[in-house]
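Dear colleague,

Following up on Tuesday's group meeting, I ran the structure prediction for the two-component complex that the binding team flagged. I've pasted the input sequences exactly as they went in, so you can double-check that nothing got truncated or mislabelled along the way. The structure tokens for the whole assembly follow below. Feel free to forward this to whoever is handling the docking comparison.

Inputs:
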Amino acid sequence: MSTYHPLTENEAIEIARSLTSVLPNAETLHCREIGDGNLNLVFHITDPNSGRSLIMKQALPYAKVVGESWPLTLDRARIESESLIIEGKLAPELVPQVYKYDPELALTIMEDLSDHVIMRRGLIEGGRYPRFAEDISTFLAQTLFFTSDLGMNQQEKKLRVRDFINPELCKITEDLIFDDPYTVSANNSYDAAIEDEAEELRTDGELHLEVALLREKFLTQAQALLHGDLHTGSIFITPESTKVIDPEFAYFGPMGFDIGAVLANLLLNYASRDGWHASDSEAADYREYLITTIRDIWTQFEAKFLKLWDEHGIDRIASAAPGYKELYMKRLLQDTIGFAGAKMVRRIVGLAHVADIDRIEDAAVRERAQRTALAIGKSLIKLNRRAESIEQLIDAAVTASSAVKA
Amino acid sequence: MSTYHPLTENEAIEIARSLTSVLPNAETLHCREIGDGNLNLVFHITDPNSGRSLIMKQALPYAKVVGESWPLTLDRARIESESLIIEGKLAPELVPQVYKYDPELALTIMEDLSDHVIMRRGLIEGGRYPRFAEDISTFLAQTLFFTSDLGMNQQEKKLRVRDFINPELCKITEDLIFDDPYTVSANNSYDAAIEDEAEELRTDGELHLEVALLREKFLTQAQALLHGDLHTGSIFITPESTKVIDPEFAYFGPMGFDIGAVLANLLLNYASRDGWHASDSEAADYREYLITTIRDIWTQFEAKFLKLWDEHGIDRIASAAPGYKELYMKRLLQDTIGFAGAKMVRRIVGLAHVADIDRIEDAAVRERAQRTALAIGKSLIKLNRRAESIEQLIDAAVTASSAVKA
């Protein structure tokens, strides 16, 4: 069983049986493959006697998206398991525990989180998560600070940069987020009703300049170890618990890309409630909940990051230079806002959409949500280098949203 | 002879004898060790019959600077030989040809350039090099463009970033250039006469902010494969030929660091002529020659880099976004100016000085040259983020120089 092949359910059970520390005295184990089969096999293995369980995630040597299939490195399983281990040390309780990683099989065996729900689904259903801002700001502050030149030995960091060189998965982001939506590309996918919007994205020079600058940062700035794909589909949640999963896009990049991903996906849900529930005070309440969450995430992140810097900063001149911290945090906010905008745009016209919006059945309502998301996204991209405060992101969202409704 | 040990002259001859394509039919070979013994052994091997020759450079497992010795990775020999090979492909005739690299012995066998002189020495002696601006601007444009995300496949570039992770040699730069000169450090070394200047460097908050930002770029911005130590002691020259040597500090960093290193070392020579030859019209002429060279290097570099971008740019949105090229070149000039300033400051108060200034015997004259170099360096560092044109660097140099003389 040591050379790579996609596992059968029986093989998965045999491997699980050897993990006696997780599944002690297991007699009969049940196995169910619960992945969508596009990128990975995911086996859910349970011991009905003890109630114990685990997840086995095996990378497949290809990606399937919208019917197409292309080869994809199995090395992403290594990157995912190594990231989870680093994140688990820096942000205990906020990622699934890794029990074992088998490089030959591209297999990660980890904690079963099936008592949680995928946050995107939770938000669509109107769930509220009072711990989320606290937890995700802790996750971001801890993982980003302690893998940056501010918080970790700068020579060790360079060796980590080397370990997390991730060309194939970075290319997916470079194409799908920082190129395709702004040109004619076979990868794009959008409703015919918003062809005018797609055309505008292809011809807006001001937008292209900002996207080129954001793309350059993504390509060159090895600031910290990112999750790399931190949308609400990569978060398992309950009102009491937050778990970040699936860091296979991890690499050393600009911190704002991770923070922006979280905010963008909250804003996509915000956009999905525009028009749809226009007459619904519950929807207005929920929008307010999302805005409050966004504000809390940035505010708490900033406070935690600065506290870590004060207490654990290892770069003498970065800690001592007057004005440097303030400038650093301002640039980080600006990056966050720019990347959030780019993440929103691509979810409307690019290859991969979000269920928050795609699931809206009424075409006119869906179209309005799409236009709202694009209006917010474009305005954040254009704002980014001028931004001074998280309130500007919130204003931009509210303003763009109102403009579409009017 | 396959495990590492410092070679004797006889062992060097034996190895050279095996390179029959370079030294065909060699009977007697002569060998002389011509290195300074601080970092490397350098064997100059000649065949008196044919007149042919070569250089064998072997890394030593330590560095000796000012009497101190510390361990230093032999991997720098790999980085040096791989860099020379890449540079040789991108800028033919502008680096020594590599005949062979032996990883076990940390040994690079290469073209003998002893018909050239070290450029620092040439400048000190008042030499003029009419090809230099042309050659070094070609070297910089070719090596920086074609190893950046603008000019090379962006996935291959990431693998190259991995190959050139160079923690130990980067740390030397991070400490000696971007930290020590601005604090009390045992690594610093300067004449007691300029204690007031050293004190000011330790307390100038505006300067510290700019140095922290430059340091951050050096730590995080994987823009292109740099030479990493491109001062005039790393250039062999004649009026007809320019050869860049010693890229053991190579890594993927901000382009402006290499360009700034060249300009800084021309400006250090410029500073060395202040006061010393004040009544000497030859010195004034030579200063004018240096300024013209600086202007030509930037102007020609910019034109060549933009031409490469037009003809070979591989990044769609970076090539198409209106205003991006202009902004890119402006930021590159700003980085160049900032790094040039940082390189000058450290050569006056830091660990490693330059002969251009240290060789001045008259203490008062030397002190004035040191103050001039510091005044130029500080003014470039403070200018960097506001700069729009290379003329501002030149003005800053002339103005700072006049202020010290007055």
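Chain B touches chain A at residues 149, 154-156, 158-159, 161-162, 165-168, 170-171, 174, 178-179, 182-183, 205-206, 208-209, 211-213, 215-216, 219-223, 315-318, 320-324, 327 (CB under 8 Å).

Cheers,
M.
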